[in-house]
Amino acid sequence: MKLKPLFKYLLVCLAGLPQLVKSAESLDPALQTKVDAQIKLIQAWAADPVVVNAVKAQNANPPADYLAMTQDKWKELSKLDPFVRSFDRNDAGALLKSRKTDAIIRAFLSDAEGRKVAFTTKTLAWSHKDDPKHLVPMSGKVWQGPREQDKVSGLEQIQVAVPVFDGDKPIGSLVVGMSVAKL
After folding, report:
1. pLDDT, tens digit, for every residue of 22-37?
2. SS (H, E, C) 115-139
């Protein structure tokens, strides 16, 4: 293994550690049990062939407009923009929406580079490439964020992220925000 990838992996693991410790400290055991049960369901979503195939396809051949998209351009787009709407109307987006419950605020699927593949509602960021919620799943592990207020809905949430695997190789991430009140 080259030193640079090893160093990046170690940084990812270390960056995610305070987040995991903080979230574990802030949740009472009963709530954590409910979150753990949701994580198992979300892992099943991430293993669905529709999800896996969508991520594989985008990793293999990302469209030119995806490659040209930036965080700033993304923020300017309305949730009704046809480009934005394509992410909740594709097969993976339809699957995520069909599995959404009252406890799920939002879900979004990202490719290996952190770019969106599908979602239930428009996200604030186009890419989560350097964010622990993407980096940790790309190392094959589950990430859990702290109890926080969702910036869009205003609801108190807990986000979790799981890897999307092709065999035993992580190829993308699935992030789900859960309503604390509905868990």
Report:
1. 444 568 999 999 999 9
2. EEEEECCCCCCCECCCCHHHHHHHC
